[in-house]
Design a protein that fits this description.
By secondary structure, the protein is mainly alpha-helical. The longest helix is centred in the last third of the chain and has 22 residues. Helix 7 packs antiparallel against helix 8 and helix 11 packs antiparallel against helix 12. It is built from 46 helices and 5 strands.
Length: about 900
Amino acid sequence: ALAQERDDAPLALAPEPPSDQPIANQLREALELPYLTDDERRALRVFHGLWTREDLDDPRDRARAALIAGVWDDPALLDDRAEPEDRAEAMLRRGDLEEALETLAGRPSIRARRIRAATLESLGRFDDADAAVEPVVSDLLRNRYDDAADIVEGVRALMIRARLREQPARDFHRMRDLLTQARDRMDRLHWPALRAEAELLYDKDNRREAGEASAQLLTLNPNSADALALLGRLSVDAFDFERTRRIAERLDEIARDFTADDDAFSARAAIIRALAWLRQNDPDLAEEEIAPVLTRYPRMRDALAVRAAVQALQHDEPALESALRAFDELSPGSPLALYTAGRALSEARQYAHAAALLERAIKRQPNWPAPHIELGLLELQSGRDLRARDALRTANRLDPFNERTRHSLRLIEELLTYDTVESEHFIVRYRPGVDAVMAREMLEPLEAIHEIVADAIDFTPDRKTIIELMPDHQWFAVRITGMPAIHTIAAATGPVIAMEVPKVGPRHTGEYDWVRVLRHEYVHTVTLARTNNRIPHWFTEAAAVHLEGAPRSFDAARLLARAVRNDDLFDMRAINIAFVRPERPTDRAQAYAQGQWMYEFMIENWGERAPLDLMDRYAEGMREPEAIPDVLQITRDDFHRLFIVWAREQAAAWGMLPDPPTDDLITLARLDTDEGRKEAAEVLAQEGRRLAHLAAGLVAGPPVGLAPRPPTGEIVDALAESHPDHPGVLELKVQAELQRRGGAPDASMIELLETYAAARPVDPTPHRHLARLHLDADDPARAIPHLEFLDAREERSSAYAIELARRYAAIEDFANAHAKAERATQIAPFSAANREFAARVALVRRDFETAERHIAALAALEPDRPQHQRQLDRVRELRAAQPQG
């Protein structure tokens, strides 16, 4: 599903800075200029976030520093001795908007007018905001400013006007040029120019350059809360929640250092964490983050908008409307809360409700591109193409420089040119041309998928599912994320499943078992529909993997066995986090595999209806902590404890938890050798010296032990004699025998390989060797069971399927030969060789309809070979002459 797959689409971001961010060389040189007075040097330190405690004695300096650190309620910002613009800026950030306007009354500075316009915009007084900003913009565009600070403030005013006026964002390049002028020609150390540039680029969804500008800013001001907050937003957008956590911690650290209060926290950090939890569809944790912000700043508009999003994701309609009314009491006419809640619902695939909120936001401020963009992307994901096109065209007219809009509009206009084929439950659309070869063959397998999934989930969606066959990897990425970068091959957004065409080449990710992949994605479509898109992340993935119809891979079995062995299985909360915030490289893979395992455990112990009853609870809006006890009559913690016991038994049955452990056997065997005893004695001596150091109060290293080491051939042979059925020992024996033969097995190893295959039934290794041995022997049909084992687990190649087709044909089992040839052409639908073999099998079976289909495909794939057309004509003659019925 979209939200599940987006984390496979990392966005290019500059890395978040550590707390000891190095400052730029030119800044260091400026601070050391010998002719600076003490006051000038202090002002420079404050401006660049490098203050000392003594630098902040004056309320004016402390107020400036508090703004940089994001401490908007610092006493200095409430002190009349601070600059009115600084106090008004803090009021704007806190949400004390009327007070900000009063503070700025009569202030003529460019910054004061920009703050006034931003305040009026936040209040929803758009005409007043436009009037306030116009003189600043007019002077800016007439080149009347010759100071870097004034130019930057003028550009920020121009950004406000771009949101207010119904006109293309024609000033984008001018804004970038002006910011470059301020930074490169006037003052290379003026970091606010980089802040404005980063904000401008983020607004255009140019995330890479926005991240680069923010990171560069931090070399000129390492304590800039604004720069860190923008990097935090970028990390949330990219589903990089570990980075989000580190950035939020850095923001909190800055707030604590500035206030000298260990309990201080950054409101910006809390909002970023809340947005991260919303992105992970966990509104309860988001609410925990946002509550203290609103206690501290009860009128802060950003925090109030996030609270509305929390209520939306909690599916509490009265509470949501109450939150929206509370927001409107402070800022009548502002679309911010509606937009924030609508966007959160869109990301949670609550498309109808999200669209309604976004349309309300648009009605309030039709010239703001953001809700148009989000609405267009929402409609695109929900399969309503014409609505998507209209919204994206409007967004592109308002802001032609937004990258997601531009890519997505190109996509929808491309999709509207596609051809379609249709069946009872599916619509397949594809780019005209050779992709029609695959598209026309998809309907029959798709209907078979529907029958399996609808029966298992006991539900049929109320509309046909659209399957979009994207012509290459880049188009697929744009389809799913709005940007041309993603690392997966298929994704479901609910009623739409997009998939990359399985081709080999520079613009493709290769061939794959698309039937298995679509079965997985269609489970998402059905479970999302059955639960009103409210199913927990791990649960929809568990159902999807469970119903793929393929055996568990050896990689998954190893991951799960290792987790059992190390007491490292995820509980129900941790497994959700592992999908979107993996702490280790293997976390997501383990989450997929363990989710399926938990689903199997649930069915085995509570029956086939248990997962379906849970889905019904989720559809009603019940969350997992309440739904599990309601259906299973045990808590989530009890479920986890019982699952651990069951999982250990399962892993042992796979031969993945041998008793005693293989390493223990190797260690004991080594201790039976002179070399091993000598090494053990030295280890004991070292440990004795270490303990003596500890007893004397001296520093000592970590405990020492007998390090694991690959066993010698002699040790393996001895273990094989004493433990002939031990899976780990059998694995070592296979490896040793292969090494003795230069890596290639011979017939003398068949019994050993078969014994190992029985002891560890999840490992494909012995089956690969046995298949090769039998194929090279006098009776290649004996390879068939091993090829079947391998083919059932193969996702990326048709090699096993086509070899099985040949083996079955050789023994004149043409029914199985046909089935495997069809599988080969599904995995590699554009392979001429597979098509030719499938056509030959069909002709032998006198299945002229299938033969015609494959030869017609060959004619489309190789139009320069006239023999295909001749064969096609002949097959059609045979089919016409074939008796009907």
